[in-house]
Design goal:
By secondary structure, the protein is mainly α. Helices cover 78% and strands 0% of the residues.
Amino acid sequence: MDLSTIDTVLQWTKIWIGLFFCSRAASSVLSKTYRELDEPQKGYWSSSLVSNLHACYVFMLAAKALRETPSFLTTTNFHLSTPASLECSMCLLGYMTSDLFFVLWYNKKWSGMVATLTHHIFVLICWSLFITGKNGQIFALVGALCEASTPFVNCRWFLDKFSMKNSPLYVANGLAMFFSFFAFRVVGFLWMGTRLFAQREGFAALPIHISILYLLSFGVGTMLQLFWFSKIAKGMMKALGYGGKSVKKSS
């Protein structure tokens, strides 16, 4: 990775970290609910707000890159890249770098830390390879599109903190989270497997250690998406009254 690219990624990292602290300052003034949280939850609150901003922005960058070069979706050229696709990749890598800092800082004080840490580490490895080699950009772009489900995941946590778990909005958000996660992260990752097969010739030409890292990252990423989706599905079924033990009505 050249110095110019590293500088761009670090600039994005600084931006996302700056937004984290800006959200903390604003939330402490604007939200009573935020002020009542403990310190780890305040950090998670701000991290989730930044996560939503990143999800919307990087989704737009990915859509822009695909709109400009629709051949990304059909090409068998593993080495196809454009300035727009690389811009999207660097933005996402900068965000993941910043978020990894907070994941390590709060550690086990945040739930699901092990899975999140594993996800972040493999994203850092994989996206660094995407950018350095200027290859695999369709996988980077689809990975960015997967962020479309993120705001719904975060909104579920916020609705819980605002004591709105029994509201219709909570159920509607849960349904949106379920379908967006399935469409982008489950179907999206499985579709990427078909594109990897279609681009196998260029992929096979990579150094063996790079190929192994790519395959390992894809395998771990897919398993994590399926793991998280299974939890979402169980939660949705429970919210709709199809989960848990049945309760007998009294006569």
